[in-house]
Amino acid sequence: MTAITDDTLKVEPRTIRDEMIAFVIMAALLAIVPLTGVYPFFVMQALCFALLACAFNLLVGYGGLLSFGHAMFLGTAGYCTAHALKVWGLTPELGIVVGTVSACALGVITGLVAIRRQGIYFSMITLALSQLLYFIYLQAPFTHGEDGIQGIPQGYLFGIFNLARPTTLYYVILVGFLLGFLLIYRTINSPFGEVLKAIRENEPRAISLGYKTDHYKLLAYILSGTLAGFAGSLKVFVAQNASLTDVHWTMSGEIVLMTLVGGLGTVFGPVVGAFVIIAMQQYLAGFGQWVTVIQGVIFVVCVLTFRRGVIGEIAHYFRRSL
Amino acid sequence: MVDPRRLRAGGDFLKDVTEREAVMQALYAQLLVGLINGSFYALLSLGLAVIFGMLNIINFAHGALYMMGAFCAYFLLNVAGIGYWPALVIAPIAVGIFGMILERTMLKWLTGLDHLYGLLLTFGLALIIQGVFQNYFGSSGLPYAIPDELKGGMNLGFMFLPVYRGWVVVFSLVICLLTWYLIERTRLGANLRAATENPTLVRAFGINVPRMITLTYGLGVGLAALAGVLSAPINQVRPLMGADLIIVVFAVVVIGGMGSIMGSIITGFSLGVIEGLTKYFYPEASNTVVFVLMVLVLLVKPTGLTGRAA
């Protein structure tokens, strides 16, 4: 079987330097956004999805596990954070903790089931599990079914930062995104990440070398789910609602699409992909269902001709790892 | 003097009898609905299994092609005035040819790549097909009348059976068994199974494997379209009729495993029946029961009930 990512490049010490430079440029660009007059809501939303796509990419790009149900983490964390803020009246930081921990718990439970099969079955199982959760949330009273949880108070983070102010909220979201991104980056370049790549390339061989591959895969799945949940918790403060859309399989598909467009198994690809797809949805919002068609066309074109994605192609051209 | 309590008890007894009859009627009705859903699960998971065997692709577009089958029947009736019986043959062939074109122009290029790309490509195709239909027909259902020959119902003594519903179950079962026979008992099927095991060797015997792959995809897609035509009079014709169904069928496939044709058929029908029973005994769980069963099966027997290790 051919590997899902293009790993013909040799990773040299200088590529780490390249990635750090790229990271600093990205952080600087994002930090000056409020000064440029770009609509901050759009960038905040894109940042949440970027973190979500990065978390998803950790699993598929480095672990070779294509989850088709990652929306369940987004939605679960969103509902839990929203409930904690609105009904329990918790502070924002505790609300984020509640959402992230619930996503982590969901990762443990679903991971123990999903990890039992590999490859294509793993995708079908995660999709089915997220659909199971969708129906549960559809009927559960605390999610308010089709209406969702609306009008969520944003509050003061650590009692100081007023999240109702767009600029403050923007920097809080940005810091959250950068922290999540660095954690993922660190994981990829850790011994754990190396074992994960080895499992992706050749699982039987990793087993024969004495690695308990199931443990590694489960851990990667839980970590990915937890970070996706973190993104979901942050998103609650931006959107101020939590609804069934975030748990639906179309959302899982969008997460896959973002990562595919940016480049599976690249460090920065999911970020670029998330911005591209969110921008596209923003500008094409008036075209109704044609957006779905266009997304489908992008899927087809990417798979047939553009499997490395935007960042993957750039990295390949310059012979760098990005 | 008669004890008034006893009088009341007698009245209750009569009421109990009629109530129990109504209860049993409802149970049979749900069982029938379950069998019908089961036939769709069987037809769809059968097609998925056949396609996966030859192309190593999980066809995410299967639900969309099922929907196309139903729309094809709808167009045939409302545009060309062609009725249900010819549609039962024409729609699967037309959609099957459409599928073969997809295979020749796109899926073919994925040979040798990771399985996941097949899933992603067909997911994109599903989005395109469903999006286009949604643009022109919205999300509401279009009615498709039951053909005259199958209207009305039969009184079986214990329940009232609408003829069309009985027909769907019997006809699906026959088609499933015919497919099983074709693949497991004929020379063509033997070639097919051989090509699944070792395509290179089969090509060396002078058998045109790429053509066989295309035809297999057409067969699988045709089965989906046939299920679509069958469901048109029951479920109405909707652009998203296959979108949620395909996820349930995925769970069915995980439960049954894709290793055996007969396994897919039996799993499909039995899960439909279990779902029907759940609708009767605990309606709140009817949407989720198949997924919960999938979790249980994965915990007990991860390879699926009939599947070999994949």
Beta-strand proportion of chain A: under 5%
> How many individual β-strands of chain B?
2
Strand content of chain B: under 5%
Mean pLDDT of chain A, to the nearest integer, reads: 88
The average pLDDT value of chain B, as a whole number, equals: 87
Structural class of chain B: mainly alpha
Query: How would a textbook summarize the main sheet of chain A?
Result: 2 strands, antiparallel
Whole-Å distance between the termini of chain B? 77 Å
Low-confidence stretches of chain B: none
| Coarse morphology of chain A | globular
CATH topology-level fold name of chain B: ABC transporter involved in vitamin B12 uptake, BtuC
Order of helices and strands of chain B: HHHHEEHHHHHHH
Structure description:
Chain A has helices at residues 13-31, 33-36, 40-63, 71-86, 92-114, 119-139, 166-188, 191-201, 203-208, 213-239, 249-262, 269-283, 290-305, 309-317; strands spanning 149-150, 156-157, 161-162, 241-242. Chain A has a two-stranded antiparallel ribbon. Chain A has a two-stranded antiparallel ribbon with strand order 2-3. Chain A has a domain at 35-248. Chain A is globular. Chain A has 322 residues and is an all-alpha fold. Chain A has 14 helices and four strands. In chain A, helix 3 (40-63) crosses helix 12 and helix 4 packs across helix 10 (213-239). Helix content of chain B is 74%, strand content 2%. In chain B, 48% of the residues are buried. Chain B has helices at 4-55, 62-78, 84-105, 115-137, 163-185, 187-197, 199-204, 209-235, 243-256, 261-281, 289-300, and strands spanning 153-155, 160-162. In chain B, helix 9 (243-256) runs parallel beside helix 11 (289-300). A two-stranded antiparallel ribbon of chain B has the order 1-2. Chain B is built from eleven helices and two strands; from the N terminus they run H-H-H-H-E-E-H-H-H-H-H-H-H. Chain B is globular, with a radius of gyration of 22 Å. Chain B has a single domain (22-300), classed as ABC transporter involved in vitamin B12 uptake, BtuC (Orthogonal Bundle). In chain B, a hairpin with a 4-residue loop joins strand 1 (153-155) and strand 2. Chain B has 310 residues and is an all-alpha fold. Chains A and B meet through helix 6, helix 11 and helix 13 of A and helix 4, helix 9 and helix 11 of B.
